[in-house]
Design goal:
- The structure holds two protein chains of two kinds.
- By secondary structure, chain A is an all-alpha fold.
- Chain A has helices spanning 13-38, 57-60, 66-99, 105-117, 120-133, 140-165, 168-176, 181-210, 213-218, 225-232, 239-273.
- Chain A starts with 12 loop residues before the first helix and ends with a helix.
- Residues 1-9 of chain A have low confidence and may be disordered.
- Chain B is an all-alpha fold.
- In chain B, 71% of the residues lie in helices and 1% in strands.
- Chain B has helices spanning 2-9, 24-51, 72-113, 118-129, 136-146, 152-159, 173-197, 201-209, 214-243, 246-251, 259-268, 273-298; strands at 55-56, 65-66.
- In chain B, strands 1-2 form a two-stranded antiparallel ribbon.
- In chain B, strand 1 (55-56) and strand 2 (65-66) form a beta hairpin.
- In chain B, helix 1 packs parallel to helix 7 and helix 3 crosses helix 7.
- The longest helix of chain B is centred in the first third of the chain and has 42 residues, at 72-113.
- The chains are: A mainly alpha, B mainly alpha.
- Chains A and B meet through helix 1, helix 3, helix 4, helix 5 and helix 6 of A and helix 1, helix 2, helix 3, helix 4 and helix 5 of B.
Chain lengths: 274, 304
């Protein structure tokens, strides 16, 4: 059996170098997160760039910098609306692409691929050009419209993989048991799609919540959390922003780790049964 | 984007075995979403193209433009801003290569070396996507702190004589490229992981049995089989990197400005919409041409 260091019979320097190299890469990935986390405890005052001393005040009072809280509320609202709309539209498309025949399939695929292959700055600029030409003032609503747009394609690819992995025989079995097409969908197909849809929704929400570039072009005076941090960067970011970033990190980590542990337990149960 | 990248390469061909149903329902399911993309992606791009040909209103205020077909907007924009264009593609290319050099071994360790230890592999994978759990902008600012003149990292590098005493890392091209590499590293690692995860390790043993050394096995077996992941990863890194301006704005200086910085400044500070629009449109076309060429060259069209 090949272990972490490779096979014992053909041991080479490379077998040891690789894990060390990977450890360095992980350090590269994680050090900035550690910094963000550490500076959420900084007794910073106005600028949070150098270490001033340890305090729990920022965590005890995350709304101590009111602009931080207001921008987080905006980001959450935008994220939820964009996620719901994009997940709905994207899931319908994914089902259609895998299960139905239609003409213009390649054009539909191209239309879904292009927003992902276009840099954000172009998407943002294009939407702003459109809103300017239509004399629409950018604000909360235009941000929601923009976020929904760039989330749809990502929802489609995520849900599509799940639809494609479903066994169509399950629906045939439902039909054999006299379920109508609609009943078969709601009772059989949809429950099996839920994990894929949930993953797509989480992805859409995180894309929306963390988006800066497209938001910056289409938000007018509305501040989202990333936009607030970017603008504040020139005159000093309140430590409360780091509290929000760290709290988001912990919440997301808990969600993903729970998923991993559930998957590990299920594997063990399956192996035990086999 | 990351999860999508994984999902994107998952289950190849599963779709083909299935018989697709006919009927109007398919169109009904597609219609709302595609209509949305038509309204908020296709029309805006058309709008961008139209705006790029506008001319200022004669005698009008700053920021007032009227419809025209002035193609010279493009030549003027290119003449003025080609250095930023070239710099964007240069930085994006270097960052993509660096991300590949860091991300491939990382993906290999998780997907192949940790194959029999599912929980460890899962935890390592979580560590790869961990940066996404906290804000992109905050992480970039953390880099600013890490590379600041009196930071631990810089002092360590100077003590080890890896960096001259009077050198600085803030506001340099090195800092910008490092930031871009860092920010898009997970986009590189995850698709490579997804393709290596499906790699049958018995093939590697077979390579060894046939007296191929580790290098030959890697070059002739592992690398070709993981190529779809490498292509997906390089695209997912290069495209956002070329359009990025957050790293250049926070970690760089005016002399490291990328095309994104120019577009942002032309829109909001100079209020020169036609120039901003023509630069955006050029960036889009340039990237699509490069992507099309690259995908065709690497023979992985089915990825699209």
């Amino acid at each position: 059996m090949r272990g972490l260091l490779g096979s014992t019979s053909r041991f080479s320097l490379g077998d040891l170098l690789l894990p060390v190299y990977a450890a360095l890469a992980f350090a590269f990935l994680l050090i900035p997160i550690a910094y963000t986390f550490a500076f959420s405890f900084n007794d910073a005052g106005r600028t949070n760039l150098t270490w001033q001393g340890f305090t729990l005040d920022n965590w005890a009072n995350p709304c101590g910098a009111p602009a931080v809280c207001a921008s987080v509320v905006n980001s959450l609202q935008i994220g939820v609306i964009a996620t719901v709309v994009a997940t709905t539209l994207g899931t319908l498309i994914a089902i259609a692409l895998v299960r139905y025949r239609f003409r213009f399939r390649s054009s539909a695929n191209l239309l879904l691929f292009l927003p992902m292959a276009t840099p954000e700055v172009v998407l943002g600029a294009a939407l702003l050009a459109q809103f300017l030409n239509l004399r629409v003032n950018p604000g909360f609503i235009t941000v929601v419209l923009a976020h929904t747009m760039f989330c749809i394609s990502f929802v489609v690819v995520t849900v599509k993989a799940r639809v494609a992995s479903l066994d169509p025989k399950l629906e045939e079995a439902a039909a054999d048991l006299y379920a109508s097409e609609l009943q078969a969908f709601w009772r059989v197909t949809f429950p099996l799609l839920v994990p894929g849809i949930a993953a797509a929704a989480l992805l859409a929400f995180s894309l929306s919540f963390d988006d800066f570039i497209i938001t910056n072009f289409n938000s007018g005076n509305t501040d989202t959390f990333p936009k607030f941090v970017f603008v504040a960067a020139t005159r000093g970011i309140p430590a409360q922003a780091n509290v929000v970033g760290s709290a988001m990190f912990i919440i997301a980590l808990l969600i993903v780790l729970t998923g991993q542990l559930v998957a590990a337990r299920r594997r063990r149960t399956l192996e035990g049964a086999a | 984007m990351t999860f999508a990248a994984v999902a994107h390469t998952a289950e190849p061909g599963a779709e083909k075995t299935l018989e697709r149903r006919r009927g109007r329902i398919g169109y009904l399911l597609l219609l709302p979403g595609l209509l949305y993309l038509l309204l908020f992606f296709v029309l805006p791009v058309v709008s961008l193209l139209v705006t790029s040909l506008y001319v200022p209103v004669p005698g009008g205020d700053v920021g007032q433009y009227q419809p025209a077909l002035r193609v010279a907007n493009y030549t003027e924009a290119v003449r003025e801003f080609y250095p930023q264009f070239l710099r964007s593609f240069g930085y994006a290319l270097v960052a993509t290569v660096l991300a590949l050099l860091i991300g491939y071994p990382l993906a290999y360790v998780i997907a192949v070396r940790c194959r029999t230890r599912k929980l460890l592999a899962g935890l390592l994978l979580v560590m790869v996507i961990a940066p996404f759990f906290t804000s992109f902008i905050l992480r970039t600012i953390a880099w600013k702190q890490i590379l600041a003149d009196e930071s631990l990292v810089v002092r360590l590098l100077k003590t080890l004589q890896l960096l001259p005493d009077d050198a600085r890392l803030t506001a340099t091209a090195v800092a910008v490229v490092a930031g871009i590499t860092y920010n898009f590293l997970p986009f590189m690692t995850l698709p490579i992981y997804a393709s290596l995860e499906r790699l049958d390790t018995r093939l590697l043993e077979a390579g060894g049995d046939l007296y191929a050394g580790p290098v030959a096995t890697f070059r002739r077996v592992t690398l070709p089989l993981s190529l779809p992941g490498v292509v997906a990863g390089t695209l997912l890194t290069f495209i956002p990197a070329a359009g990025d301006y957050v790293n250049a704005a926070l970690l760089g200086s005016p002399s490291t400005a990328m095309i994104g910085n120019v577009i942002d400044a032309q829109f909001f500070r100079v209020v020169d919409y036609p120039t901003a629009a023509s630069l955006s449109f050029l960036l889009m076309v340039a990237i699509l041409v490069l992507v099309g060429f690259y995908v065709r060259r690497s023979g992985t069209e089915e990825l699209l």
